[in-house]
Specification:
Helicase, Ruva Protein, domain 3; 8 helices; 10 strands; DNA damage; glycosidase; damaged DNA binding
């Protein structure tokens, strides 16, 4: 799933390549992705892209008024969605339900540059909203403070008296916005903390380490990602991971074997040597962890 660094990089890519370009046409290949109907996405034709922004893990593209208030095309890419930039595209509208394409925006001219929203797999969870105010998107309205905007003291206040495991709190978007499964694994590994540690039980020293890890892991990932083309961002993310998706491989810090805990259709990875005093975690303890 794209997280804060990848969404930040996609927004940066759009600011560099799409801003000041008019919309020629919008093609919808999957009606199920549209979560709003008024205004219709066809109403973007003739408007000009004026910016792109990130709200947690939501990507927003702003279009100038014609006249009236600006409109924001906001997407949550979910687990298998992605944004793909193209310099040329077919002028023939896509057939609904064929392939991974969900929505295409033609800029300058039909068949010219623009971007696609795509989603692989059979579980279609990608969502698209067209609104006059980003706060009209329910997921954005529920977001907690952005992960990179939190000071150490604000972070400590969020964790105080919380009984949930720290892994759960890090990925809860209503608590902290922008962090998902992969970067929470990396943050906890960098901070040398067990995912099962209760948020309200952290010592001051552990809060210091966790906040520093959050800042360093995310800012390093943003620095690596921004400036990359959309097509190379996934590989860039994978290349920077030390424990996530590395089950069975040696930890690059201590050499212990990276372990995995599975739950439902997801899993997380950790290093026993760095995080749990050498003791593997039991899967049965994860029944109420991140859903």
């Amino acid at each position: 799933m794209p997280e804060l660094p990848e969404i930040e990089a996609l927004a940066h890519h759009l600011r560099e390549h799409a801003v000041y370009r008019p919309v020629a046409r919008v093609d919808v290949a999957s009606m199920s992705v549209l979560k709003t109907v008024d205004p219709p996405v066809s109403g973007l034709a003739g408007r000009v892209v004026t910016g792109a922004a990130r709200y947690g893990k939501f990507l927003a593209v702003e279009f100038a008024d014609r006249p009236g208030a600006p409109l924001h095309l906001i997407t949550h890419l979910s687990r298998a969605g992605w944004l793909r930039w193209h310099e040329t595209a077919t002028v023939t509208p896509p057939k609904p339900g064929r392939g991974p394409l969900a929505l295409r925006v033609h800029l300058d001219a039909v068949g010219g540059p623009g971007f696609d929203l795509t989603e692989a797999g059979t579980q279609k969870r990608l969502s698209v909203h067209l609104v006059s105010d980003p706060a009209q998107v329910p997921g954005i309205a529920r977001l907690g403070p952005d992960a990179l905007a939190l000071s150490r003291d604000e972070f400590a206040e969020l964790l105080a008296d919380r009984s949930e495991r720290i892994k759960t709190l890090l990925v809860d978007q209503a608590t902290i916005a922008g962090i998902g499964n992969a970067y929470s694994d990396e943050i906890l590994h960098t901070a040398a903390l067990s995912p099962y540690t209760g948020g309200g039980r952290l010592t001051d020293a552990q809060i210091d380490a966790l906040h520093a890890a959050l800042r360093s892991v995310l800012t390093d990932a943003v620095d690596r990602s921004v400036g990359q083309g959309a097509a190379t961002l996934k590989q860039e993310k994978r290349s920077g991971l030390r424990v996530h998706a590395r089950t069975g491989l040696p930890c690059p810090v201590c050499g212990d074997t990276v372990r995995e805990v599975s739950f439902a259709a997801r899993s997380f990875q950790y290093c026993p040597g760095c995080q749990t005093g050498g003791k593997p975690l039991a899967d049965r303890r994860l029944s109420r962890l991140v859903k």
